[in-house]
Specification:
Blueprint: E1 6-10, H1 20-27, E2 32-38, H2 50-69, E3 74-78, H3 81-92, E4 96-100, H4 105-120, E5 124-128, H5 150-158, H6 208-221, H7 226-229, H8 242-246, H9 252-265, H10 270-292, H11 314-322, H12 328-340, H13 345-358, H14 363-373, H15 379-390, H16 405-412, H17 417-422, H18 431-434, H19 442-447, H20 463-479
Parallel strand pairs: 1-2, 1-4, 2-3, 4-5
The structure holds flavin-adenine dinucleotide (FAD).
Flavin-adenine dinucleotide (FAD) is lined by residues 230, 238-242, 245-246, 279-280, 282-283, 286, 345, 348-349, 352, 370, 374, 376-378, 381-382, 385-386, 389.
Length: 480
């Protein structure tokens, strides 16, 4: 065995199974330094948000324990990775560095700089594909352009073969002596005063074992009915794998392989499997867009939207963030987000549409709020989805499709379970008025102990007026 160690630099791939960078490092037969760098400097405004930091803490703790079982340690360092990684290489005399690729623009620039510097110093650097099934440069139109529309993109993906799964190494040989490491607690990733994350604890199990468990639960209990149940707000009909996928505790290839195998054993699962894999396809598509259009998180993809007369209404924005808009389905969703760090996909579309179209507030403010509060905050998925709802993105929903929050609530939360769960102050209201309490007769409100304007707000904006206002604004930018 060569004594010069290999550094495995883990980032959004906090797992041992199907980790191509780790597998390559093990294959090098060098003793390993497994490194995680908390880099708050490179991402600029996209520094990891509060909820994500909570997840990161738990996930790194789980990873460190998994590594220890196989004989390795996790070295933690903080700072600009462009300085930290070469410093670790110098300190240890490492001869090779391995990582799985990231696609965020700031990470790509940083990684290219690190790669060039290390190679110049004679260090082997190998980057692998671990976060996606299909590298963005692999999937091109017949005219050799990146895809801008999802359906043909995904069709093209499904014609490609994928790499094989890399099994988890049984044993790891750690480099000794181990390098100095920060303690996880010293990073203060979990909130204390106040601890706004108490609602996260019972719901989530960050780490590789938690990811596999979530996948198992979904495949055995939800896959069959996924195409219909995924839109129902009050049911737990989706996988809730998004934070696990974002942090790379499980790879999309593992998810796809397990899903296809479940459907191969039970043909009745095929319809659910196809739909579910299409959603994973949206994840690939979003990253593909970010890769080819790196300004996606900050700039309208369709520049016609630059002229949109956004309103600078801080009071309305605050009411939205706090779940106090007076529209129950919007408020339930915003409170679900605050309490659990998660929001149902249908609800994300409803609240995003409400912010952009009813309140005429710039989608970037909503994007930033989600960035800070979602456990699955992901630059590509978040930016693509916000622009999709706004109508400013590639393959976006048309701007004139304006969700009516009352009918959306009635359709996707027909029994009111979702609203009652997150808005206990409305729990006693009859279903007939639950999604539009302002239409309830005084007696129904009194029976349910509701005083509009006191225990629950009046709507902060009138739906019909807001709809006309948004359509007029859109007509204006279209004709400009
Ligand atoms: P499932 O339905 O079980 O889907 C499986 C996986 O497919 C998800 O875990 C996710 O990785 C991927 N996926 C599903 N839907 C989408 C989608 N529309 N776009 C991209 N990938 C998708 N997802 C994030 O992971 N991070 C975000 O920051 C994020 N922000 C969003 C913002 C808005 C305004 C909207 C409308 C959607 C956003 N999404 C985001 C997409 C989607 O809402 C979540 O991925 C999904 O709700 C996660 O729940 P799940 O894991 O149970 O999904």
């Amino acid at each position: 065995m060569s004594e010069s160690p290999a550094v495995v630099w883990l980032r959004q791939d906090l797992r041992l199974a199907d980790n191509p960078a780790l597998a390559a490092a093990v294959a090098s037969k060098r003793p390993l330094i497994v490194l995680y760098v908390l880099d708050d400097e490179t991402p600029g405004p996209w520094r990891m948000g509060g909820a994500s930091r909570w997840w990161l803490h738990k996930s790194l703790a789980a990873l460190a324990a998994d590594l220890a079982k196989r004989g390795a340690t996790l070295t933690l360092r903080r700072g600009d990775a462009a300085k930290v990684v070469p410093a670790v290489v110098r300190e240890s005399g490492a001869g090779a560095v391995y990582w799985n690729r990231l696609y965020e623009p700031h990470a790509r620039t940083r990684d290219e700089t690190i790669k060039a510097a290390l190679k110049k110093a004679g260090v082997t650097v190998e980057s692998s594909s671990g976060a996606l099934m299909f590298e963005p440069w692999m999937i091109r139109t017949k005219a050799d352009q990146p895809f801008k529309v999802f359906t043909p993109f995904w069709r093209a993906c499904l014609q490609q073969t994928t790499r094989s799964l890399a099994p988890a190494p049984r044993k790891l040989t750690a480099y000794t002596p181990s390098l100095p490491s920060d303690t996880l607690d010293s990073w203060r990733l979990v909130p204390t005063k106040p601890n706004w994350a108490t609602g996260f604890e019972p719901l989530w199990k960050p780490g590789e074992a938690g990811a596999l468990k979530a996948l198992d639960r979904f495949l055995s209990g939800c896959l069959e009915h996924y195409p219909d149940a995924r839109d129902q707000l009050g049911t737990h009909g989706t996988s809730r794998l998004s934070p696990h996928l974002h942090f790379g505790e499980i790879s999309p290839l593992q998810v796809r392989t397990a899903t296809e195998s479940a459907a191969a054993h039970e043909p009745r699962l095929q319809r659910g499997a196809d739909k579910f894999l299409t959603e994973l396809g949206w994840r690939e598509f979003s990253t593909n867009l970010l890769f080819h259009w790196p300004t996606l998180p900050e700039q309208n993809w369709r520049d016609g939207f630059d002229a949109m007369p956004w309103r600078d209404d801080n009071a309305a924005f605050e009411a939205w963030t706090r779940g106090r808009t007076g529209y129950p389905v919007v408020d339930a969703a915003m409170r679900e987000l605050w309490i659990t760090g998660y929001m149902h996909n249908r609800a994300r579309m409803i609240v995003a549409s409400f912010l952009i179209k009813h309140l005429m507030i710039d989608w970037r403010r909503g994007e930033a709020w989600f960035w800070d509060t979602l456990l699955d905050a992901d630059l590509a998925n978040n930016a693509t989805s916000w622009q999709w709802v706004a109508g400013s993105g590639a393959d976006a929903a048309p701007y004139f499709r304006i969700f009516n929050p009352v009918t959306q609530g009635e359709r996707y939360d027909a029994d009111g379970a979702y609203v009652r769960r997150w808005l206990p102050e409305l729990a006693g209201l009859d279903n007939a008025y639950l999604h539009n309490p302002w239409t309830a007769p005084e007696s129904a409100l009194a029976d349910a102990r509701i005083k509009l304007g006191e225990t629950y707000p009046h709507p902060i904006v009138d739906h019909a007026m807001a709809r006309e206002r948004a359509l007029a604004a859109f007509a204006e930018i279209r004709n400009a």
